[in-house]
Hints:
By secondary structure, the protein is mainly alpha-helical. It is built from four helices and four strands.
Amino acid sequence: MNLRSTSPVLAIAAAVLGLGLALxxxxxxxxxxxxxxxxxSGSSDSPTSPPPADVDASDTQGVQYRLDDTAERRDQIIAxxxxxxxxxxxxxxxxxxxxxxxxxxxxxxxxxxxAEARAACVSLQPLMPLELSSxxxxxxxxxxxxxxxxxxxxxxxxxxxxTDTAEWTFVDGKPVPDNAGDIDHQCMLEAxxx
Length: 194
């Protein structure tokens, strides 16, 4: 079980945002399979969830998460993107997710998501905070090391899965604390806000 996707969310991924940004799954690129949040209640012809008020939906790059986002704002961003994808031809996965443990997952899209749906919803696609990528943060390397060290100091042992993003996986054989999501979020803010 990973709190963070190892194939870009935040998220976005274990894309979904239950344990803070670590569960977000917001770091998806148009060519990357994504796991989305729970489907909205009601039918697929329900009105689209509006993005948060501070989101400029005319931005064709997507919606940028911020390090200090509230769970409510992240949920609104995910819901608006999910609803848009569904209204433009994507479908919810109703059986086991391929490559997963075989458990039904009502919160994943059937893959691949149709190109038309992706294109129609690109302005609502959740994007990871700029601080969490070496491409957009010149201090990323040092901050990512502080991030991992902070989590280890609090009992959450992880290793980065690459050198360009803050995606991580658990260190084998180490216990995972019940408050892993809180530790991740606290350390992310501490390491990348400086």
